[in-house]
Amino acid sequence: MKTSSKSLLQELEKITQDNSNTAAHFLTLSEEQLNFKASPGSWSILECLEHLNRYSAFYLPELRRHLTTSRTETNPIFKSGLWGNYLVKMVIPKEGGKKMKTFTAMNPSGSKLDKAVISQFIETQTQLLGIIESAGSADLNVAGIPVTFTKLIKLRLGDALRFMAYHNQRHVQQAQRIHS
User: Fold this and answer.
1) Domain total for the chain?
2) Which band of pLDDT confidence, cut at 50, 70 and 90, is reported for residue 149?
3) How far apart (Å, rounded) are the C-alpha atoms in residues 155 and 146?
4) Which are the contacts of 68, defined by CB distance < 8 A and separation ≥ 6?
5) Where are the beta strands (DSSP E) in the chain?
6) How far out from the chain centre does Cα 106 lie?
């Protein structure tokens, strides 16, 4: 995938803001609605957001570290890397998308959760918006963001931001389906 760095960041900013706005609506729901599961093996709204909070706990510090240590000029064009494009294609929301297994550490099933999960998610989205803004003065093509499952693979900054935004969008949409 090859695109304008500026337009990519604008798209990711919009997705992230939409995710935050949707989560804010969840604050109006009851604890019962937030913990409802359509079937025994499925997640509740709170579990969807807690899953994302766990990913944010890993990626947000890595993104901040990369932005503060990477000394590169901006690049007007972003070209996705092989691994980054693969991971983003896996998580990007699609009509009739299939369920995916998650890593045990990222699986919130069975956790006792309350509305604080939603507030935490909204805060992580605010932080991600700040990181996206800061990324406007960085080269999105520079690799250096490790993935959660191995430190051997490093994503380009733009791919890591794409992964975060689309992965969040996927599970926020999942939470919306649970509510409707």
Assistant:
1) 1
2) confident
3) 6
4) none
5) 2-4, 77-79, 143-147, 150-156
6) 13
Please give the Cα distance from 105 to 149 (Å, whole number): 10
pTM attached to this predicted model: 0.92
Beta bridge partners of 150: 147
3-state secondary structure of 145: strand
Q: Would you call 49 exposed, middle or buried from its count of C-beta atoms within 10 A (0-12, 13-18, 19+)? A: buried
- Domain holding 174, by residue range, is 2-179
Token pair in block for residue 133: 């803004």
CATH of the domain at 115: 1.20.120.450
Rounded (to 5) percent helix, strand, coil in the chain = 60, 10, 30
DSSP, collapsed to helix, strand or coil, labels residue 5 as helix
Task: For residue range 18-57, list pLDDT tens digits in order.
Answer: 999 999 999 999 999 999 998 888 899 999 999 999 999 9
Residues in the chain: 180
